[in-house]
Design brief:
alpha/beta; Cobalamin-indep_Met_synthase; 5-methyltetrahydropteroyltriglutamate-homocysteine S-methyltransferase activity; transferase; five-stranded parallel sheet
């Protein structure tokens, strides 16, 4: 029996990679210093797994920004707009330009699109494909990392995004071809990579093919068989692991087990029921990797249950054909539970139920020992401690609240209905709000400067008292309100300077949540989030945002939006309890947010935004499971939003998602205004709303806040023209793609001034055209 890890967190135990990247981007360190940080993190990760006793340790799972972008650079799929940078700059600078855009030295180049990695909160950079595109080996990162691992004495297993998954993750940038048609063009580059790895002594290669657990058409299935058949012909002696995760194989089982590979990895956390069918189908030539430790959550593994799966597999196919692994890459797990030392933040009782990436590595090793014929005393003690922790969590009084459960039980369909349909509400809202054509707003947050973060840190440490902290935040809030008034934004926001993270902030004020000091996970690039932990029944003990919303509204005659995070997003961006259905937990959160919405309205806040950027992300990977999820997810949003009067305008925000296939469900959410990310796709995402004839108001983002480049007024005007071509002007709002928390003030000010000017120009042009028609 062997153990392996599919991938390991790459941000470092103290987010060293985040800090180094941001220092490099700002010119505070040079390239060699950045590369040294990456090298240290990588070698530390290898050593940790080696010391734990993992048999096959992944390499090429490290990335300075994103693994899909790494593969794009590796195979030379570099969009034409970056060619000038490719000639002038280092490979690393080209790489970051593709991720973040480039705006200096007389060049102004947009970033590549970014979207969610399946149903996670990790974002990847979307490959761009052209008809008859050619590929070539451009970057040697995969080979170099394997050589480094080998030199460090590591039993390394290169991890490569499978050819089919790489193509399916990408986007055709012109019409008239299918990206799968590029498989034969791309195959020689994969063969060249494998040849290099074989020459340097690689034994096992892991291909990540999560699309094997998704719905596939016949062409994709045939291409899978062709590609792996060709790879096997060229490499009869290499051992190939194909890793599937996030779902069960289901109707792709016969395809997966017929591929000429050596090890098939399946996710038994997401789909434990598939084990029996896989064991009954698997040929004698194929070994099976059991993904039994949850790579996406923080709960301690139930050894008893996992040993049941291992025993079943060993009895059927023999221990020599069984591998033990996490369900997926540990990229989605925090680094090390041992760093959680403050019992005031994370109580010992809850902490004993948890395992981070480092602990999950040891869980894998202990399961191998426990599955052996004669586990030693220390290993048996580990089993006893595991049983004790699992039982403690089941019986803990911290988890259950009967009042919350009863409130969920008595919730009715009427609780998810506004008083009047949208067309009636719109007239009422316009009379009250009196907003202009093309109203401007932002998504919520403004830049959190070093000073703001320092104030929060000092307040937490007791170096500032509550009154001092409050005064500083009020000064920053007033400055932001005044500046928005000055440049002419129509609907203001208070800036959210009191908030750490859009989910963590609310979790800190809701019962049933726990928190960590260092439970960081990568969201995209250098952006890390620290998800709260939902361990028990959720309710709202006290108002959460009313104080700051009331204060901001008192400063201005303009409307100030109340800013909330929606129930589905709070669920998706937390580590969620696994002892009850997610739908039940989501409804508990929805009722808590409903209470907050109602209190904001009572306080005079007439525009309330309930952000749901994760609603598409939560969509099950198999279409047959969509409707059940969408039913409870849409209902949860409506429960949170439907307790208000017609005159109160409800906004929602979504970003980095494709909407075509769930547009009806988005309409069913019945938000008065939806704001969406649109600039990276040049308004392509609006087509879904146009084709559907989306009835409510919509704010397509006119500039990309995930890039440091500042778009011109003219660029935004062009985007608004594209928007007006498909959406009636009376329905359009003007706003950035997303919140501005991670940006700097100088670029934010320039961009928002240009945005307001673009809105005015679009409005004047529309009025002029309307007058001419009349």
């Amino acid at each position: 029996m062997q153990t392996h890890i599919l991938g390991y967190p790459r941000i470092g135990s103290n987010r060293e990679l985040k800090k180094a990247c941001e220092q490099y981007w700002s010119g505070k360190i040079v390239l060699d210093e950045l590369l040294e940080v990456g090298k240290t993190i990588t070698q530390n990760n290898w050593k940790l797994q080696q010391d734990a006793g993992i048999d096959w340790i992944p390499c090429n799972d490290f990335s300075y920004y994103d693994l899909v972008l790494d593969m794009t650079l590796t195979v030379g799929a570099i969009p034409e707009r970056y060619q000038e940078i490719a000639f002038k700059k280092s490979e690393t600078d080209l790489y970051f330009a593709m991720a973040r855009g480039f705006q200096k030295e007389g060049l102004d180049i947009t970033a590549m699109e970014m979207t969610k990695w399946f149903d996670t909160n990790y974002h990847y950079i979307v490959p761009e494909f052209q008809k008859n595109q050619e590929f070539k080996l451009f970057s040697n990162k995969i080979i170099q990392e394997f050589i480094s691992a080998k030199q460090a004495g590591i039993n390394a297993k290169p991890v490569i995004i499978g050819l089919l998954t790489y193509l399916l993750l990408g986007k055709e940038k012109e019409e008239g071809f299918d990206k799968l048609d590029l498989a034969q063009n791309l195959l020689p580059v994969y063969i060249q990579i494998l040849k290099e790895l074989e020459n340097h002594g690689a034994e096992y290669i892991q291909f990540d093919e999560p699309f094997l657990a998704l719905d596939l058409n016949e062409k994709a299935k045939e291409t899978y068989q062709f590609i792996y058949g060709e790879i096997r012909k060229h490499f009869p002696n290499l051992k190939f692991i194909v890793a599937t995760y996030f779902e069960g194989l289901k109707d792709n089982l016969s395809l997966a087990t017929s591929l000429p590979i050596d090890v098939l990895h399946i996710d038994l956390v997401r789909s434990s029921e598939q084990l029996d069918e896989v064991l009954n189908t698997i040929p004698n030539t194929l070994s099976l990797s059991l993904g039994i430790v949850d790579g996406r959550n923080i709960w301690k593994n139930d050894f008893t249950q996992s040993l049941h799966f291992i025993t079943k597999a060993v009895e059927k196919i023999g221990s020599d054909r069984v591998f033990i692994a996490p369900s997926c890459s540990l990229l989605h797990s925090p680094f090390d539970l041992d760093s959680e030392k403050n019992e005031d933040i994370l109580s010992p009782e809850i902490k004993q139920w948890m395992a981070f990436a480092k602990q999950k590595v040891y869980e894998i090793v202990n399961l191998k020992k426990l599955a052996s014929e004669n586990p030693d005393y220390n290993t048996l003690q580990e089993l006893a401690e595991n049983k004790k922790a699992i039982e403690n969590r089941k019986t803990s009084s911290l988890i259950h609240n009967e009042e919350v459960k009863n409130r969920v039980d008595v919730t009715t369909e009427e609780d998810a209905q506004r008083n009047s349909p949208f067309n009636v509400r719109k007239e009422t809202q316009q009379k009250v709000l009196k907003l202009p054509l093309f109203p401007t707003t932002t998504i919520g947050s403004f830049p959190q400067t070093k000073e703001v973060r320092t104030w929060r840190s000092k307040f937490k440490k007791g170096e500032l008292n509550a009154e001092q902290y409050d005064t500083l935040l009020k000064q920053e809030t007033e400055r932001t309100i005044r500046w928005q008034e000055e440049i002419g934004i129509d609907v203001l926001v208070h800036g959210e300077f009191e908030r750490n993270d859009m989910v963590e902030y609310f979790g800190e004020q809701l019962a049933g949540f726990a928190f960590t000091q260092n439970g960081w996970v990568q969201s995209y690039g250098s952006r890390c989030v620290k998800p709260p932990v939902i361990f028990g029944d959720v309710h709202r003990p006290n108002p959460m945002t009313v104080y700051w919303s009331e204060y901001a509204q008192s400063l201005t005659q303009k409307w100030v939006k109340g800013m909330l995070t929606g129930p589905v997003t709070i669920l998706q961006w937390s580590f969620v309890r696994d002892d009850q259905p997610r739908s039940v937990t989501c409804k508990q959160i929805a009722l808590a947010i409903r209470d907050e919405v109602n209190d904001l309205e009572k306080a005079g806040i007439r525009i309330i935004q309930i952000d749901e950027p994760a609603i598409r992300e939560g969509l099950p990977l198999r279409t047959s499971d969509w409707q059940n999820y969408l039913k409870w997810a849409v209902a949860a949003f409506r429960i949170s939003a439907s307790g208000v009067e017609d005159a109160t305008q409800i906004h929602t925000h979504m970003c980095y998602s494709e909407f075509n296939d769930i547009i009806q469900n988005i309409a069913d959410m019945d938000a008065d205004v939806i704001t969406i990310e649109c600039s990276r796709s040049q308004m392509e995402l609006l087509n879904a709303f146009a084709d559907f004839k989306y009835p409510n108001e919509i704010g397509p983002g006119v500039y990309d806040i995930h890039s440091p480049r500042v778009p011109s007024k003219e660029e935004m005007v062009e985007l608004l023209k594209k928007a007006q071509a498909v959406i009636p002007a009376q329905q359009l709002w003007v706003n950035p793609d997303c919140g501005l928390k991670t940006r700097h003030w100088d670029e934010t000010e320039k961009a928002l001034i240009a945005m307001v000017e673009a809105s005015r120009e679009a409005s004047e042009a529309f009025e002029k055209e309307r007058n001419l028609v009349q």
